[in-house]
Fold this sequence. Notes:
Four copies of one chain form a homotetramer. Chain A is α/β, with parallel strands linked by helices. The first copy, chain A, has helices at residues 71-86, 101-106, 122-131, 133-136, 152-157, 185-194, 214-224, 260-270, 280-286, 291-299; strands at residues 16-23, 26-32, 34-40, 45-50, 56-60, 63-67, 91-96, 114-119, 145-149, 163-169, 195-207, 229-236, 243-250.
Amino acid sequence: MNTPMEKKKDSPPPIYWIADYLTPSDIYYHAVHEIIAYRKTRYQEMLIVNCGTLGKGLILDGVWQSSSGDDFIYHEPLVHPACVNHGGPETVLVLGGGEGATLREVLKWKTVKRVVMVDIDEEVVSACREHLPEMHQGAFDNPKTTLIIKDAVKYLEETKGEWDVIISDLTDPIEHGPSFKLFTKEYFEKCRAALKPGGFFLLQAGPVSLPSMKMHVRLVSTLKAIFKYAHSYNIHVPCLGHPWGFILAGDRPIDTLPEVSRVNKLLADKTSGEFRMFDGTTLLGLMQNPKHIRDAIEKETYVYTLESPPIFSTQEIPK
Amino acid sequence: MNTPMEKKKDSPPPIYWIADYLTPSDIYYHAVHEIIAYRKTRYQEMLIVNCGTLGKGLILDGVWQSSSGDDFIYHEPLVHPACVNHGGPETVLVLGGGEGATLREVLKWKTVKRVVMVDIDEEVVSACREHLPEMHQGAFDNPKTTLIIKDAVKYLEETKGEWDVIISDLTDPIEHGPSFKLFTKEYFEKCRAALKPGGFFLLQAGPVSLPSMKMHVRLVSTLKAIFKYAHSYNIHVPCLGHPWGFILAGDRPIDTLPEVSRVNKLLADKTSGEFRMFDGTTLLGLMQNPKHIRDAIEKETYVYTLESPPIFSTQEIPK
Amino acid sequence: MNTPMEKKKDSPPPIYWIADYLTPSDIYYHAVHEIIAYRKTRYQEMLIVNCGTLGKGLILDGVWQSSSGDDFIYHEPLVHPACVNHGGPETVLVLGGGEGATLREVLKWKTVKRVVMVDIDEEVVSACREHLPEMHQGAFDNPKTTLIIKDAVKYLEETKGEWDVIISDLTDPIEHGPSFKLFTKEYFEKCRAALKPGGFFLLQAGPVSLPSMKMHVRLVSTLKAIFKYAHSYNIHVPCLGHPWGFILAGDRPIDTLPEVSRVNKLLADKTSGEFRMFDGTTLLGLMQNPKHIRDAIEKETYVYTLESPPIFSTQEIPK
Amino acid sequence: MNTPMEKKKDSPPPIYWIADYLTPSDIYYHAVHEIIAYRKTRYQEMLIVNCGTLGKGLILDGVWQSSSGDDFIYHEPLVHPACVNHGGPETVLVLGGGEGATLREVLKWKTVKRVVMVDIDEEVVSACREHLPEMHQGAFDNPKTTLIIKDAVKYLEETKGEWDVIISDLTDPIEHGPSFKLFTKEYFEKCRAALKPGGFFLLQAGPVSLPSMKMHVRLVSTLKAIFKYAHSYNIHVPCLGHPWGFILAGDRPIDTLPEVSRVNKLLADKTSGEFRMFDGTTLLGLMQNPKHIRDAIEKETYVYTLESPPIFSTQEIPK
Lengths: 319, 319, 319, 319
């Protein structure tokens, strides 16, 4: 119908882009092929988008949270190391975790009788329920699930000695964001008090890339001020641009040299559903941090408090 | 409160960017400092944003429409050359023109008794009314204004010989967009029939930059197939990345060598309000196209029809 | 030979990009399809590249100078308005002008007996001679041409009352760049002294886009402090991202309302070769600045001196 | 000296950028703060740049090779797992490895009597020697080092049963690049023949990120067709944008559950100099691939040959 010179290209290039400043000199641009949902909620700005290769993405206050295409690489290591160390959790508390994928992983444990998810932002949770079924896979409707819309700090004031595992899956502590004060000693003390004896606390704990691992390292130091044991691990999540860090903490020793066959047997006995990235071998690998990260953790003594909370920002590479 | 190493930068760099592919090798990225409004309407996807230096921007289907900071450079040349050539328009029809800035300029003519704006997309118009007061400046509430939500083609079927000036201020003809068929001979014939004898038609007519002026040149050729006279002019609008083209058409001669003092006197007599970029000298300059654009227009014979409408896309630089 | 899943895309996307910060929120990225030449000379860093749609580009100290695809839109208005106002220049001095395209345009005037080009950077000139034949088209080898490698200021100290037309086609005054002090009253005084009585001076004078026209406006004000007449004009050059400004100055009146047919006759009589964008109509259009630019020029009184030279940088949009 | 409005910003934003298309929708832009060296050699295009946070970067044919700021995260795992598995290498052959950092790591083994580096591109090697002393740290001048400028395939034809460890540290197999045919069965057979009995072969083996690990997985499959054992591991290298893959292969079993203390003792006894990221714990972690990568490797049967070599390109995420 049109002359050849005017023919439309098969796939026009993306128009919207979201920049993630890995460092001031290294920028990761995510294409947005389609805006699926946009909300300015009471607490934050939310976008759910089609981001192409990696599927659908959730962005809060401009920060990429997760993508449906690689979310298993984030959510399996977020949930299962704590559960394996516990051995058979019955009660699990998820703080944050808007997409419902953390719930999804928790519910793989047949031992779980009750999982409570506490998120401050009802609009984000309901948008994720509607637009990200790949991620929650019905977890919100599971009879073991209770969803509570509330400030995590307020909820923690009401619950003591009740949880086998607590997973703090909050947005990064950007200024004016809703999670600003939830990466501090005071908050972690409340989490510890909410655990049953022998329970484990798991923190999503920011990037662990060479140029930007200071916050992670300080969070390890902060958790060590509260718990007898705290162990850092990380894995590269493509949509996040960095290896992402987690910290497992508790007053019982953490098994950092787990026997592979024992873990695989525990998973076979006590979980159902498929794991894509997690098993005994994966756990053994996760528990071993490279030397430069262990060295950085060892040297750090800073403790984040309400008086001096972290501010998530790009830092310079250490000399 | 925080250690110096962690202090937040005074102005964090923009996270959202909108790409305008001037050519496949030349990309203009617009920063989005804040999303002010987002709508997926029945017809198109709309964003109103804070774009920094250039103020607020309106984006439809990913295409930048205008910015509050430089809209006068687009809207004054869109409206006044037609009105000056007419001499004292009483009835003006605006097709499209969602922001209300075209209305704003029309209403500067004290001769105008009635201006009708016909736009297909009520949601876009109402969002502009709410969020872009800098642009409409109350024009929607002027008693001379009538706003009609309707398909421009349908409206044109009901109005004959009624208008001194018709301004077609539509979105570019991207495929699946609402304006796809409104850049054709058939549409322009309807516009001509709606004019009073001696009336003028003005078309927003796409970029006129060396690598992307083919559609503009073909629109001149198409209008020349309908009207006795058609004259192309353009001006660089910063937020649009290119010089932007307009075509003034009618069955009366167009004054392409206007006497500066005569135009200034006409404006002094028949308009009120301030002009920022337009006056007699400006009009004289606008009417003179550089030689390479005149040459391209002269050679072109293609006529856009419903059978072979334009598709707005980036073209290669002519040899 | 390879499986379909592994086939290489027909045209891989560009890897190198050069950013032009039109404003802090508006960035023009130029693709570099191939690096043709790279030099770190005594004075500046030079790149000659294949930039795709716009042909070959010359970049000095990171600032785009010109592209072979659209250089005529820059170089014809740089040279011919001064020559037309003079009427028949015999001696022309070009200060800067590394690509040789300014020479090329000057040599279209059959009246010219001698054109001297003074450029400080031999390495840049010789790279342009070798790699940009599209631009100089042999102008360096014309018997009327003399190329002198020298600091323009030093050359100006040796030449008095000698030139019908002087064209200052220097790089922008970025700090530490070679042209930093050549946009000042002191320099323009030397240029004036080098002109014959009745001669004209032409300055390439920076962007004239709404958010970044302050330097241009101040250059007009500075030239008015030296010459009886100074007239600003501009045209959008695609590869430069902005409309680009020129200032024509002299002690004879400048014809700002040139009669089109008279100019065309002058060109027919006194020039040879083809013009792509320039003729009488183009000149008439160029001479008419839009009102907002004239207003800004009228208000400005700042004079650049060696004590307070310009610094080329992006400025905020005026309120 | 200048008015405040014109003051230069403290650190102007970077002008040159190098794009790494992690996927078609995910682009990593590296800022180039300064071009330190540029060469178009007989084999490839080379850039050495100051890339800001990550130090100095080497780029060959537009592909980022390494950065001085994080090169230890690439070069320590490239060299030491093979050497630890060998136990005390005396002769080491490095194929490629232009920066000299692979040599640097090999020379940490006190057991090494002779290390030969074979690189095809003398100009790249000499530019790295001159401009990247942070990376080679004098390794080229070590009396144990022999540098041979030659095609790796030709060199392999002359050396049989001679090496304890061979490290293939070549550029990715982009079309027309110099390494196109060095990721094939035929090449790996030559490497195997050059090893002493009990020797180990180590291949730098491309990205292992979810959307782009197909080439890596096929390289494992190809090496398994030649060697009795082949083990894949990877680590995230910030400047490379992805976790980067390595494959250790040999005819002796590879210890995938190394005892940490035994490794640390071996390193203490047989190496000198500091390790930044490598030790026994790091090695134990490296040897454990996450389940989804092991699964992908297990399913793969494709073998790269000269008839069907790999083409390095971005692939779609697997369903």
